[in-house]
Amino acid sequence: MPPPKARIPAVDGWFTLDAKAPQLLGTRCKACGSYFFPKETSFCRNPSCAGSEFEEVPLSTRGKLWSFTDNRYAPPKPYMAGDPFVPYAVAAVELEREKMVVLGQVAGGVGCDQLHAGQEMELVLDTLYEDDANEYLVWKWRPA
């Protein structure tokens, strides 16, 4: 029997690997308090702020479904879609505290027919793809 695969992030530094309580990792501008994901390190994207100092912060793990769609074709490289490609839903979720929208896949087994705008969603970790040695994880959304 082969050894278990290592579970590693598909994108390093964007989320925690705590399977029971995963969190996205963003930044907050020290000058105006605006949140950013992915992390910002150069300048504040808030047009009314000239801030350039940021602190890393864990982001909300829940939010409201703002919009959604299904993806029925394999995205181009460098995205790893798995072979064979399996269609999946994509969700735009407005984070509870930060009031910003974060896109992500919807967890497997949940299709667009099970989603509706305004629905409560929660963050989970799930496999994006695997190779012989590793299982590459990414954040996904699922109905709460």
Description of the structure:
With 144 residues, the protein is mostly beta strands. It has a domain at 61-143. Helices cover 0% and strands 42% of the residues. It is built from no helices and 9 strands. The chain has strands spanning 6-9, 25-29, 35-36, 54-58, 62-71, 88-95, 101-106, 120-130, 134-143. The strands form 2 sheets. A 5-stranded mixed beta barrel has the order 5-6-7-9-8. Strand 8 (120-130) and strand 9 form a beta hairpin. The chain starts with 5 loop residues before the first strand and ends with a strand.
Q: Structural class, judged by helices and strands? A: mainly beta
> Could you estimate the helical fraction of the residues in percent?
under 10%
Instruction: Please write the string of helix (H) and strand (E) elements.
Output: EEEEEEEEE
Q: How many beta-strand elements?
A: 9
In short:
This protein is an all-beta fold. The protein has strands at about 5-10, 25-30, 35, 55-60, 60-70, 90-95, 100-105, 120-130, 135-144.
Key attributes of the depicted protein:
144 residues, mainly beta, five-stranded mixed beta barrel, three-stranded antiparallel beta sheet, 9 strands
Write the layout of secondary structure elements.
Layout: E1 6-9, E2 25-29, E3 35-36, E4 54-58, E5 62-71, E6 88-95, E7 101-106, E8 120-130, E9 134-143
Parallel strand pairs: 1-9, 7-9
Antiparallel strand pairs: 2-3, 2-4, 5-6, 5-8, 6-7, 8-9
